[in-house]
Amino acid sequence: MKTNLITPEGYRKLQQEHDHLWHEKRPEITKIVSWAASLGDRSENADYTFNKRVLRQIDRRVRYLRKRLPDLKIIEYSSQQAGKVFFGAWVEIENDEQQCKKFRIVGPDEIYERHDYISIDSPMARALLGKQVDDDFVVQTPQGEKVWFVNKIDYPSS
Length: 158
Fold this sequence. Notes:
Blueprint lengths: L4 E2 L1 H30 L8 H23 L4 E2 L15 E6 L4 E7 L10 E3 L3 H6 L7 E6 L2 E11 L4
Parallel strand pairs: 1-2, 4-5
Antiparallel strand pairs: 3-4, 3-7, 6-7
Helix pairs in contact: 1-2
């Protein structure tokens, strides 16, 4: 089950996506579908078929966002989080092979199209919660246990 946590920026982005799809993209595609339908035989009309499919995708995403947005809990940064890894933190970690990773721990709705975000539900994020700089932590992976070291923790300034 997905966690319902989200950063303020993530919530704004989903809200903007909903508004863009509903107020701009959907009316634009609806006009094209209506125009293509007016041409007659829809079975061989590529404009109609393609844009009807796009309209279904938009409607599916809008339904999802309308259902998901009210369930999300926006987590604001609190000064009590300073120095430890919690939701919304930017974390830099390193392992014994000097592999470094830097990412932000966010809600599962925020990770798409971002290579520097990981879900709070991921094993890495779960293992990191509550850790401080210079702490070691163990993550279970398909290849076995991996030990990492916390180099740096930052929180975005709001």
